[in-house]
Amino acid sequence: MARTAWVDPDECISCGLCIENLPEVFRFADSGKAECYNSAGASEADIQNEAMDPCPVSCIHWKD
Ligand code: SF4
Questions:
Q1: Would you identify the CATH topology of the domain 4-63?
Q2: Where's the 4Fe-4S ferredoxin-type domain (predicted)?
Q3: pLDDT tens digits, one per residue of 15-54
């Protein structure tokens, strides 16, 4: 089964980069912080390369 990505809301600075790169996976929650609403919206490699790695505060993690 594919892994699920998770945004730590305490660390997210709401820069929007992950949402811009992968809008089918990430969106802004009502809190104003990013959330992963659909881990199946992109491959694990794309989530890693286009959201996790470039996130300026490295707050997107895999949930086991
Ligand atoms: S890239 Fe990181 S800091 Fe920016 S909105 Fe996404 S989770 Fe938050």
A1: Alpha-Beta Plaits (3.30.70)
A2: 3-31
A3: 999 999 999 999 999 999 999 999 999 999 999 999 999 9
